[in-house]
Amino acid sequence: MPLIEAFLLQFAVLKYLDLIGIVLFVGLPAFKVLVFLPTLRVISDIKTRQTLKAEEAKYARRILPLVFFYLLLLHGVILVHQIENMTGQPLARSLPILSHWLTGTFSGLLWLNKLFLLIFIGFLFRIETQRKDFLLLALGVLLCLGASLGGHAVTEKIHALVMTDWLHFTSVAVWVGALLPLRRMVKRYASCVKADQQILFLRKLIENFSLWAILAAAIIVTTGAFNAVIYLGADVFAFEAQYGKIFTLKLGFVLIVFGLGGFARFYILPRLQAEDTIERTQFLRLQRLFLRILSLELFFVTGVLIWAALLTQTPIPK
Which of 31, 37, 51, 185 has its CA 20 to 30 A from that of 213? Predict the structure, then answer.
């Protein structure tokens, strides 16, 4: 018996692509607001701070609109797929029921609300305000809520778990989504920061990221364990059930990611904190090691999101 039915696999692929887009969208403003801006305070030179801000802003201005258009396009693809799957006919022949689906079904209303949210995000891109990053982060958190409303908590009518699903996915999006801009900043900050301040900057960058990563990991573990117990009870690791198999595979990838994050926090960071004794060659070695750890984390969290998408389309054992 296949791990997941073929027709459910199509939904899982679309769900995975949607999760990736939301995580990338949330990660950029989360990194800037929670990690990057607090780290800038250790840089005393105003010109250096402005250069770092410009470097980060250039990346965000290039990537965020691309992620936005990706989510918008994917949202249209999801509409076509759901309508055609529901009717068994091409979208052109299914237009008479489109209005009913959009306004008379929960999935249709959820799709419509996400569309309005994406349109609002598009307008926000054209507005210049100092609070734009905070607003984008808040809207990204609402996108996470939309993803949670399309999960098992609603389909299984366990509505109380929508909040824990939302906290779970939001924590994943903030932590995982910030990995990519963090890795880019670690690769590029040396061109902006003077050599005598590089250790201080990298140390503070990792400290700030670790603080939020630990908080996110605690929420992920707590909400994930709570949801699994409510959904499955004693059958969490029951390999005869498809859900149990996929859940266990996902858990394995999560533990690897936690291990890599723990290595960075408890091996690399303490050595950077001993800045009085660290030599330049050792510092550069630790920086390269940290970049490798980030690359590995990005690889394995991709696997986590794949299994998470499969879980959303896998029936919970009764």
Answer: 51
